[in-house]
Amino acid sequence: MKKFFAAITLCAVSFCFAAGLQVSAAKDDAVPQKMLSHNIYFSLAEPTPENKQRLVDACNKYLAPHPGVDYFASGVLCEEQKNIFNDRDYDVALVMTFKDRKALGVYARTPEHQKFIAETTALLKKVRIFDADVSRVAVPDDK
């Protein structure tokens, strides 16, 4: 029952998210588009090293190679970072930057994204998504 609820919830969130992006992108056409940072933090039902690796592998397999993706990275919680400001309520992180909101909307409806949801839903306890409009800022090279 838990897995069924999690699957339905993930599908509903994905559908609403994609639909909402279409509306917001249409309203913002006159405004120059910023890049969109799309960060997802997954908590696993059973956070074993094998399940963590399985989720990272699925992220890399299904979610990395998409048009409009400017940056992609996935990995596990950094155990060494334990200061009072670190949120440690997740097991696997997915960090993506899209060239614009429209690219994220297209990505959310791809067959690969749907395969990812189908393959990983049973592993998950909680999913948190953080989206932000961001701008690239030039930084000096470290020397």
Features:
single chain, 143 residues, alpha+beta, Alpha-Beta Plaits, four-stranded antiparallel β-sheet, globular
**Biggest pleated sheet:** 4 strands, antiparallel
Computed Rg: 16 Å
Pick out the low-confidence regions.
4-32
Strand segment count: 4
Oligomer: single chain
Query: Which structural class do you get from the secondary structure elements?
Result: alpha+beta
Order of helices and strands: HEHEEHHE
Question: Care to describe what's here?
Answer:
- The chain has 143 residues and is α+β, with helices and mostly antiparallel strands.
- The chain has one domain (2-134): Alpha-Beta Plaits, CATH 3.30.70.
- The protein contains 4 helices and 4 strands; from the N terminus they run αβαββααβ.
- It has helices spanning 2-27, 49-62, 101-108, 111-120; strands spanning 35-44, 69-76, 92-98, 124-134.
- A 4-stranded antiparallel sheet has the order 2-3-1-4.
- α1 (2-27) runs antiparallel to α3 and α2 (49-62) packs antiparallel against α4 (111-120).
- The radius of gyration is 16 Å and the shape is globular.
- The N and C termini lie far apart (55 Å).
